[in-house]
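Folding follows sequence. Below is one example:
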Amino acid sequence: LPISERHDFDWAKVALDDRKTFKLFGDGLSESVFQFESPGMQRLLKDAKPSRFEDLIALVSLYRPGPMDLIPSFCARKHGKEEVTYPHPLMEAVLSETYGIMVYQEQVMQVAQRLGGYSLGGADLLRRAMGKKKFEEMQHHRGLFAKGAAENGISEQLANEIFDLMEKFAGYGFNKSHAAAYALLAYHTAWLKQHYTSEFFAGNMTIASDDTDKLKIFHDDAVRSEEHTSELQSQSTISYAV
């Protein structure tokens, strides 16, 4: 029978700040967890130690060719080993959730709005132009951005530097709304693994019943997960740095 028929269970009531679930992520025990099951992602989780849902959204977006270069800085800034800086104070409200690093397409658009005076529709056109890398169109937008930035007291030199930064990130920036949906499914999967461990592995093993190699992976992971749960139960409190 489904979990919902045997337990008082409602996805709408699952909190997105469950410390045991984030401990599972931070320990890299994400085998069979959507988007986080690869060995590389497991290593990243151990380095990043995500402690809030926004961190999961960012990691989904960063673990791809291009933005992967930013992962060490993201982790260092999150844990206070590197200073969080912003090219301009107006960018702090946009980039604070990602520790000063531009990760999402939406952030590129928000910077265009806040600093360059773009409308929301205009900012989307800018994002598209940056993604296509059309020289003449980009030169046009560079001028528009600099003009709008000047009205906010931003020098032409700094405006061009920020525009270059936006152009760089727009080339591989991920769509945050898409990443958030991925992160939510990943979190729910990890939550099930942590709180309904037996059911989680029973389901996965049933699906992989004809694959002995996969069954061995699930078996070993189940042993690790049980040890992890026992460790958490023996601890009275666990502190997390956000």
About this structure: The radius of gyration is 21 Å. Residues 93 and 100 are 9 Å apart (CA to CA).
